[in-house]
Design goal:
alpha+beta
């Protein structure tokens, strides 16, 4: 190889080794301005509800049911919680078209003032529609009892849920309900319930 070419090649290799700094001098340090404060987002606070996995009667809390998801998913369970919200059918102004109402459903939580949807659980399947609920309510207030043939069972029709009250609900813990609802965190497909703190119904003196 020609001497001049060899010299040029050695200089190029040296430049690569020294990080493109042929003088070999150390790279200048980056200095931050005085008083510099990085603008970082606040560390989020993760809320951990202070409730047991299960209560003394064997029913789950909402938190407990989800913690035991691998064991409880797809099973018929009982869960205890407060009714914190209920779906209301859309009210249409005259002359306007509203979307059709969804099937009645509500949300329960471990505390009666829970606002975060992440800690609520959907309950579905306690009524087929709002017309059914209105009819069941009218019949109940009128004291009307439907006589059924032996072996015949009516679908659920619950109209007297009370906001802020505590219920023990019996149902299937699912991600998809038989009524078309879905929730990756799980929902309750209703079978039965008991109100744990509702005022007793007044008795009629004989």
């Amino acid at each position: 190889m020609h001497r001049a070419g060899a010299y040029a090649l050695s200089v190029s290799v040296a430049a690569l080794v020294l990080g493109c700094n042929p003088t070999g001098a150390p790279a200048p340090k980056e200095e931050k301005p005085s008083g510099f404060v990085p603008n970082l987002p606040a560390v989020p606070t993760i809320k951990v509800p202070q409730v047991p996995i299960t209560f003394t009667d064997g029913s789950y809390s909402i938190t407990g049911l989800r913690k035991k998801k691998k064991e409880t998913m797809g099973q018929r369970i009982r869960v205890t919680g407060y009714v914190v919200a209920m779906y209301e059918k859309p009210i249409c102004q005259e002359g306007k078209t509203c979307p059709p109402a969804k099937m009645p459903h509500l949300w329960i939580a471990d505390t009666m003032d829970e606002k975060d949807k992440l800690y609520r659980m959907t309950v579905v399947g306690y009524a087929e529609g709002f017309q059914q609920i209105e009819k069941c309510k009218e019949d109940a207030l009128a004291g009307k009892v439907t006589e059924l043939a032996e072996g015949v069972e009516l679908p659920p029709c619950v109209w007297d849920w009370q906001m802020g009250h505590k219920y023990k609900i019996d149902g299937w813990f699912m991600t998809f309900s038989s009524h078309g609802f879905q929730d990756s965190m799980g929902l309750i497909d209703y079978k039965d319930h008991e109100c744990l703190d509702c005022p007793a119904a007044p008795t009629t003196p004989q």
